[in-house]
Specification:
Number of domains: 2
Shape: elongated
Structural class: alpha+beta
Strand order of the largest sheet: 1-2-6-5-4-3
Number of helices: 6
Largest sheet: 6 strands, mixed
Length: 202
């Protein structure tokens, strides 16, 4: 796995991203930049991202969609105002139960609309992964933004989490992993006898 040094990056500037033509890059709509999308497209890179509600869309053509799918529309579009209009991209609108429709723009014209929707929504699995890390692996912030620093912190957090889970399973404890970890911290500098007594049955 390759990783860039993020110490000097900005969430609004993703020119630092090390990109390769063999992959499709899925961006959050916070990175919406029409000129950048055109440059990626002209250079032979693929991308999938969500457009904002106020994005100006020029519909050039529409493709058939299945009534049985969650795809509301599949269109050939150009984006932007008169002073800058993008290349021809694809705009796929996905129906979501109980939520607003999802509008996705991409330069992947070779995939089914349903697949485009799944590709973008898969990024939420990454969001859930980091949410799990923050909730269960006690990582609230990263102490370093370098490759080695982030990797080391993640590895240490996973080791602590797995050891805590092992204690829970071996001793058949009812407490959550977080509660067990809090109790362990209270005796981290004490002799082993304190640790042993901490988890003895009442």
């Amino acid at each position: 796995m390759e990783m860039d040094d993020l110490s000097k990056t900005n969430t609004k500037d993703y020119t630092w991203i090390s990109i390769k033509q063999i992959a499709t890059y899925i961006f959050d709509r916070g990175y919406l930049d029409f000129e950048r999308f055109d440059q990626l497209h002209w250079d032979g890179y693929f991308f999938v991202t969500r457009v904002k509600k106020n994005t100006i869309v020029h519909v050039l053509d529409a493709f058939d969609t299945s009534e049985s799918s969650d795809v509301i529309s599949d269109q050939l579009v150009a984006l932007g105002k008169q002073n800058y209009i993008t290349s021809r991209f694809r705009l796929v609108t996905i129906r979501r139960k109980g939520r607003s429709n999802l509008r996705i723009v991409t330069n992947r014209h070779d995939l089914p609309a349903e697949e485009i929707g799944k590709m973008y929504q898969s990024r939420w699995q990454i969001e859930l992964f980091f949410k799990h890390i923050k909730q269960h692996m006690t990582i609230k912030t990263y102490f370093s933004k370098s490759e080695n620093g982030v990797a080391n912190q993640l590895c240490l957090a996973m080791i602590v989490y797995l050891l805590t889970l092992l204690i829970k399973l071996e001793l058949n404890l009812k407490q959550t992993s977080f509660q067990i970890l809090r109790r362990l911290r209270s005796v981290q500098f004490e002799p082993y006898t304190y640790f042993k007594k901490l988890f003895e049955p009442d």
